[in-house]
Design goal:
alpha+beta; eight-stranded mixed β-sheet; four-stranded antiparallel β-sheet; 38% helix; globular; binds cytidine-5'-monophosphate
């Protein structure tokens, strides 16, 4: 049976700034996103039956249409009914390595891999741009997960402008396994508290454009890891850290060890530190592990990677 195996890397946000509210009630964002080597493996194969079947060994991953990977297959079925009729159903297996509900876009990456995998199975010949347009209908982070690397994401997060890729930067990630933060909650809480600071809509595009010539982009172009570490920024920390003291404590612990910079990723609760070398990253890993004995805390050492979904 024809099948493809793909890797779907996690992402972190080097910058997440909330500019205002959009007519569609989403937030207008400017983000700088970065994929890392920590990745899920996604297998897609053709089925003889007329079904979408999802498998995953992780107990907290739903196997129905509440899973974005399932909805990615449904979207392909709707968009390409002739291919669906010709090839039949889709069997998807998710091998999870990225923590779930973590602010690392694990679910979005899985959906991105399903779109890419079905395009290959059905020999549709879609371009990256076509796949990203489809991905945007599933979730704001899906288009970035397809292309990956280092990129500016504007609009809802779905408008992607690639940046030069960054090499040799290591990352230590920390997440309490049982702690999940709802992304809609984080944005609603932010709106509740900071709506008075939102830019009026005519100004949104100008503000979004400013990031292209901003300090962090200049540091990325100059490959200046020290500056990049100092310029990390995430507006959602303002609501998530006060509401989740454990995340706040974890962030404080990460910060006590020499590193390039520490920040929460996306809507959390994952916290990360950047490191100049694998050795520095491993030292942070061991020191945080020694300081926090809670077995619920998961720690990972990984590094920046320059791609999104890829076939293996
Ligand atoms: O696009 P996605 O489904 O990943 O978004 C999840 C939720 O996060 C949305 O329902 C919305 O509450 C919030 N969100 C937002 N503005 C964005 C992206 C997400 O308010 N740009």
């Amino acid at each position: 049976m024809k099948s493809y195996t793909l890797t779907a890397p996690a992402k972190i946000n080097l910058h997440l700034e909330i500019l205002g509210i959009r007519p569609d009630n989403y937030h207008e964002l400017v983000m700088i996103m970065q994929t890392v080597d920590l990745a899920d493996r996604v297998e897609v194969k053709l089925l003889n039956t007329d079904d979408i079947i999802l498998h995953c060994g992780h107990p907290n991953v739903p196997l129905d249409r509440t899973n974005l990977a399932y909805r990615a297959a449904e979207l392909m079925q709707q968009e390409f009914p002739d291919a669906w009729t010709e090839y039949g159903g889709i069997d998807i297996t998710l091998h999870k390595h990225i923590p779930i509900a973590a602010g690392l876009a694990g679910g979005s990456g899985n959906a991105a891999a399903v779109l890419v995998g079905i395009d290959l199975l059905w020999e549709l010949g879609l371009t990256q741009g076509d796949l990203q347009k489809l991905g945007a209908r599933l979730g704001s982070d899906v288009p970035f997960c397809i292309s990956g690397g280092t990129a500016i994401a504007t609009g809802r997060g779905e408008v992607i402008s690639p940046l030069p890729s960054l090499e040799g930067i290591y990352v230590v990630l920390g997440k309490y396994q049982s702690l999940e933060v709802s992304t809609p909650w984080a944005y609603t809480a932010y709106r509740h508290e900071f709506e008075h600071e939102y830019a009026p809509s005519p100004e949104l595009a100008i503000r979004a454009h400013r990031i292209h010539s901003g300090d962090l982009v200049r540091a990325i172009v100059a490959q200046d890891a020290v500056k990049i570490g100092k310029l990390l920024y995430n507006d959602l920390e303002k609501v998530v850290l006060p509401a989740y003291p454990l995340v706040n404590q974890l962030r404080a612990e990460f910060q006590t060890h020499p590193n390039l910079g520490t920040m929460m990723s996306g809507s959390g609760p994952t916290v990360f530190s950047l490191a100049t070398s694998l050795e520095q990253a491993e030292t942070i890993y061991h020191q945080v592990r020694a300081a926090i004995s809670d077995p619920d805390l998961e720690l990972f050492v990984t590094q920046f990677c320059d791609r999104g979904v890829r076939i293996i």
